[in-house]
Specification:
The chain has 471 residues and is of the alpha/beta class. Helix content is 46%, strand content 15%. The protein has helices at 9-22, 30-35, 82-98, 119-135, 154-167, 194-207, 210-216, 234-247, 269-279, 337-345, 353-356, 359-373, 382-400, 406-413, 418-443, 450-469, and strands spanning 39-49, 52-62, 70-71, 74-77, 104-111, 144-145, 226-230, 250-256, 259-262, 289-291, 302-307, 324-328, 349-351. The protein has a 7-stranded mixed β-sheet with strand order 10-9-8-7-11-12-13. Strands 1, 2, 3, 4, 5 and 6 form a 6-stranded mixed β-sheet that branches. Helix 1 (9-22) packs across helix 16 and helix 3 (82-98) crosses helix 16 (450-469). The longest helix is centred in the last third of the chain and has 26 residues, at 418-443. It is globular, with a radius of gyration of 23 Å. The relative contact order is 0.13. The structure holds glutamic acid (GLU). Residues 71-73, 147, 149, 179, 332, 357, 360-361, 364 line the site of glutamic acid.
Length: 471
């Protein structure tokens, strides 16, 4: 990775793991087994482009196999490397266990700057990468299921699905070999917004816990809370937009690649995003102060700081100066191990990545279930539920001797459709898991913070699976 941190991303993940494993009583050697990355493959493949061959390097790591398939995104980034892929794959293992999604952890990357290639070229490269993954046993609906990550999106996922289908024409579940596909190509409603939505639901659950609020030095609700967000990519954009528009939070600063924009009374996220799309920068956004050294803004006072970009951005250098009350980790691995220790000493309340950004993989799970069941969510029960509600309304109106309010009636009448079911499933997951992590923290005197609790919770769950396998 291009970061200059003393402790690498992978070391940070492993150190957090070790700290949590120490708080648990596990059979000898099991923690080591769980922590170890089971398989990693480096692939080099040539693609004929612009009249010559270009060699690409990609990786896929299967961190664990206590349950299959293994799951995790594919990143397209010029700075990708094997260690980063391993760290991200390990995080996927812990993440899936925390939110009770029945997958092992995996991750992949291709060392490429997607901006340097045309759409046709990217398609060609992605199809070649798919063939390599398939050939080496790193792809398949029951084996290993990629998804979007940094630098990849829906279109690439449909190329992967299509290529896999060509290679396995008789596999009826072929579409389930990858998630994050467009809805018209086997995807599920709400997958694009899922990680940001999960961040919103996770923060809402934090605000429902008076004990946690008190610990963080906050009170009330999300309404009017000041938020600084780093990264207005898919995750950051959706999280900031929902928190602003639906919960009334104030996005007082947005940190992007070219610098940060600040407005104490709150920035309109949708407008900033449109401005960024058009100008490829945030500098010059009206009614905001611009700071070219964006990283400086991480240490500005706010209620909630949301890093939603890269790993390793909060380090031992800036951790002593952070002035947020809550650090809500929407990115994977934004805090180094040293910084984590400093923040714990400073009592900054951390909602850790492995829990908070698990919305993406949770909705990927729903998409995969849809692919395997070959039916859209709500198709069987929507009209039935509507007819039942209609009968209840009629009975109520007859008993009351008057008609119910039309608006209320329409709301009651709406049967479950896919987007509502996906959001409801995600909300339930984020609420339940928040409290599982919280209980893990409060019930184990050896655990002093939420990250350790989240890791311990996932290690416990994986250890239980091993236990039942080797009875
Ligand atoms: N790349 C996302 C993550 O880091 C999603 C993974 C998935 O949906 O499999 O969680």
């Amino acid at each position: 990775m291009h970061s200059t941190n003393k402790t690498s991303f992978l070391e940070s993940v492993d150190l957090c793991f070790n700290r949590a494993a120490k708080a648990l009583e596990l059979p000898k050697g099991l923690a080591h087994q769980i922590r170890t990355c089971n398989a990693i493959c480096e692939m080099k493949f040539g693609v004929e482009l612009r009249g010559s061959y270009e060699i690409f390097t990609g990786w896929r790591a299967t961190h664990s196999e206590h349950i299959l398939p293994a799951k995790g995104g594919i990143r397209y980034a010029p700075f990708a490397d094997q260690q980063e892929v391993e760290a991200l794959a390990a995080l996927m293992t812990y993440k899936c266990a925390i939110v009770n999604v029945p997958y092992a952890g995996s991750k992949g990357a291709l060392k490429i700057n997607p901006k340097d290639y045309t759409i046709d070229e990217l398609e060609h490269i992605t199809r070649r990468f798919t063939q390599e993954l398939d050939k080496r046993g790193f792809l398949g609906p029951g084996l290993n299921v990629p998804a979007p990550d940094m630098g990849t999106g829906q279109r690439m996922m449909s190329w992967i699905a299509d290529e896999y289908q060509r290679l396995h024409p008789s596999d009826i579940n072929a579409k389930g070999c990858v998630t994050g596909k467009p809805v018209h190509f086997g995807g599920v409603e709400g997958r694009i917004e899922a990680t940001g939505r999960g961040v919103q639901y996770g923060l809402r659950e934090f605000f429902r816990n008076p004990g946690d609020l008190k610990e963080a030095g906050l009170e009330g609700s999300l309404q009017g809370k000041s938020i600084i967000i780093q990264g207005l990519g898919n995750v950051g954009y959706h999280a900031a937009k929902f928190l602003e528009e639906e919960d009334g939070a104030k996005i007082i600063a947005i940190i992007e690649r070219d610098g940060a924009i600040i407005n104490k009374s709150g920035l309109p996220v949708e407008e900033v995003s449109a401005y960024k799309q058009e100008n490829r920068k945030v500098e010059g956004f009206p009614d905001a102060t611009f700071e070219p050294d964006g990283a400086k803004i991480l240490t500005h006072p706010c209620d909630i700081l949301i890093p939603a970009a890269m790993e390793g951005v909060i380090t031992e250098e800036n951790a002593p100066h952070l002035q947020c009350k809550v650090l809500a980790e929407a990115a994977n691995g934004p805090v180094t191990y040293e910084a984590d220790q400093i923040l714990n000493q400073r009592n900054i309340f951390i909602i850790p990545d492995a829990y908070l950004n698990a919305g993406g993989v949770t909705v990927s799970y729903f998409e995969w279930l849809k692919n395997l069941s070959h039916v859209k969510f709500g198709r069987m029960d929507r009209r039935f539920a509507e007819a039942q509600s209609q009968k209840i309304i009629e009975l109520m109106e007859r008993a009351l001797g008057k008609n119910l309010d039309q608006n209320a009636k329409e709301q009651l009448l709406e049967g479950p459709n896919e987007i509502n079911l996906v959001r409801s499933g995600l909300d339930d997951t984020m609420r339940e898991s928040y409290n599982e992590v919280r209980e893990q923290h409060l019930n184990n005197p050896m655990i002093n913070d939420r990250r350790t609790a989240a890791y311990a919770l996932s290690i416990r769950k994986i250890a239980d699976i091993y236990d039942s396998m080797y009875l």
